[in-house]
Amino acid sequence: MSLVLHVDAAAWRAHQDSVVAGDPGIVPVAKGNGYGFGLPRLAGEVRRLGLDRLAVGTAEEVALVRGSADEHGVRTGGAEHPGFPGDVVVLTPWRPGDAVAEAALADPGVITTLSRVEDVAAVAKAHPGARVILEALTSMRRYGMRPDEFEAAVAAAEGLEIVGWTIHLPMIGEHLGEATDLATTALSACTVPLWVSHLSPDDLDRLRQTFHVEVRHRVGTELWLGAHDALHYRASVQDVHDVTAAERVGYWQRRAGRRHHRLAIVSGGTANGVAMQAPTAAANGRQVVQTLANGVMEAGRMALSPYSAGGRKLFFAEPPHMQASLLWVPDSVDVGDELEVTMRATTATPDRTVVE
Ligand SMILES: *Cc1c(COP(=O)(O)O)cnc(C)c1O
Fold first, then answer.
1. For the domain 230-355, what is the CATH code?
2. SS3 state at 350
3. Among 16, 20, 26, 29, which residue has the most ligand 1 atoms within 8 Å of its CB, making it the best to mutate?
4. From the CB of 217, is ligand 1 less than 6 Å away?
5. Ligand 1 atom 15: the closest Cα is on which residue?
6. Is the CB of residue 219 below 6 angstroms from any atom belonging to ligand 1?
7. Which tens digits make up the pLDDT trace of 27-54?
8. Any idea what DSSP says for residue 266?
9. Is the CB of 345 under 6 A from ligand 1?
10. What are the φ/ψ torsions at residue 208 (nearest 5 degrees)?
11. Boundaries of every domain in the chain
């Protein structure tokens, strides 16, 4: 038995359908761990949605959505992996010397992101006819060119097919003004569609009213994970041991606490992303307090686990192993029980996904 992601197919797909219906011009994003679903599965959903383009994070991921290789780079293909036939945008900007990104340029369905004038010139020289998106630097200060470089970038793109400008905004704050300013400069250098991320529906509407080009909206989290109730990670209880007070358990031979007498071995561990935490943004006071509280618990060797039984979170007996975790459980928990697991979708790798 394993750590399994259970997907209520009807509810999950109804949610996807409603997001797509409300966002004409949507570009689904399928990258990384595929938001817990894996990239091949998301590519299949994009096909089901009838959309003709999607965005991936890296050049390596092109083969995964195309169905031509698995995550280890091993060649696949055939009826089992029909792959996504439409346009695939690579979000990470191209850099010289990356053989995979170089090879992707040969796929006429791949759209490469360029974020430096020198890279635009290099791609124009080596791959005339390639399809590219030019990236504008935003207040994110991640990738992109400054507005005073836009004209030079367009000039350097001679011989390339510019399919758009990309504007990737921060998650928080008010950014319509910034997007409008960047788009104004960009479109005066070259009139092509705008590809934007993280703008509210109202801001998108306003952008579409202001500019007479297509505005394409990249969406991952809301599309794939918005139907919370449709998604459940569950792990099975593989074994249970009654232990006496102060008995030692686990790799680290910690003593059982006074209130702990039932140890459960459950499926799921570090390989699945159990208890993986991103550094929190701790945006509000309550989150700061929670983070501190978790730290205190860890210092006292009592870390709250993401597993729960009867609606209550269980404590780890020690840090998770590769594919198993040791938990302190109440008497009611027995071998064969299924426990609900709270997973962070962007770091989750279930052993199996069941779409039912
Ligand atoms: C990952 C990514 C997205 C999708 O972000 P979500 O918050 O998951 O919707 C959009 N745009 C860019 C450029 C990205 O890298």
1. 2.40.37.10
2. coil
3. 29
4. no
5. 91
6. yes
7. 999 999 999 999 999 999 999 999 999 9
8. E
9. no
10. -70, -30
11. 9-225, 230-355
